[in-house]
Amino acid sequence: MKSLFGRDMLTLIDYSREEIEAILEVSRRMKRNPPRKALEGKSLALLFQKPSTRTRVSLEVAANQLGCHSIYLGWGDLQLGRGEPISDTARALSRYVDCIAARVHEHSILEELAEFSSIPVVNALSALCHPMQSLADLLTIFEKKGRFSGVKLAYVGDGNNVCNSLLVACAKVGIEIGVACPPGYEPDPRFIEAAEEASEESGASVLISHEPEEVVRGAHFVYTDVIVSMGYDAEREERLRAFLPKYRVTRELFEMASKDAYFMHDLPCHRGEEVAPEVVDGERSIIWDQAENRLHTAKAILYLLLRPPAKRRSR
Ligand code: CP
Ligand code: NVA
């Protein structure tokens, strides 16, 4: 596999199965035995247009544990907030730091950052997708099952950023994924198409449905996310009407999954809204493992994107 040094990570569509598995392998290594100072002297800019707990903290701690300095930049603290173009911000930051991790509303902002910066740009969540979350989810799934093939995951809820990335991540590594969402809230067609294509190669399958029971039956993992994502607050009432009561993970729905099924959520969650409290806080819930794995996968991503490959010794 070619080194990932210098690559952007905007969506997992751009990453092959082999590359995703390499990131997971390095994540496992980092979890067992974190290397210290592997990125000493490097700097990371964290550019956030919306709030974050897990992504921000795991990235800052990951950078710190690798010896990389991180700088948190709230949108409003930069000249960006006063109208300086994204392209100029990207060019200026490229002269100071070695990587930009950005959380933005519109995915096109990430594309523009990547186009105008000379350093890797990592998607720390956009309205379109959340690749860092899916990598942590894959790590968590593998830890529970020891394999991807033959594993079935059901996602019930909004076909949003988390769902788009999960679709592609699962399909690439060979997990059978079923999504049940209300009509009109399907995942992005580009991600469905990429997942269908990837599943042909990996031997997995992709099902987009409007029937939660259809996707949950026999699933080894049942996943959901919020009904109202950041940036969609104006649609709250309309969304609650479209989603409830059918598209939520209740105990009854969860019991239709495989008897040893696990519950997953990227967090933050709304108990009683997209998931029943007894499921999210129940003994089959692995939400804190997912949250922890954000740290190990963040370390692997920074390490692989920022560390130049070792030079081959000439004979
Ligand atoms: N799951 C996730 O990305 O959480 P934060 O919004 O807290 O970063
Ligand atoms: N779909 C959620 C994910 C939060 C981590 C949102 O975009 O708000």
Largest sheet: spatial strand order: 7-6-5-8-9
Strand tally is: 9
Tally of domains: 2
Give the helix tally: 12
Mean pLDDT: 97
Tell me the β content. Answer: 5-15%
- Cα radius of gyration in angstroms: 19 Å
> Helicity, in percent?
40-55%
Distance between the termini: 23 Å
Structural class based on helices, strands and sheet pairing: alpha/beta
The CATH homology group name of the largest domain:
Aspartate/ornithine carbamoyltransferase
Q: Main beta sheet, described? A: 5 strands, parallel
Q: Which ions, cofactors or small ligands are bound in this entry?
A: phosphoric acid mono(formamide)ester, norvaline
Looking at the overall shape, the CATH architecture of the largest domain is 3-Layer(aba) Sandwich
Question: What is the CATH C-level name of the largest domain?
Answer: Alpha Beta
Sum up the overall morphology in one term. Answer: globular
CATH topology description of the largest domain: Rossmann fold
Uncertain runs with pLDDT below 50, 5 residues or more? none
Topology as H/E string?
HEHEHEHEHEHEHEHEHHEHH
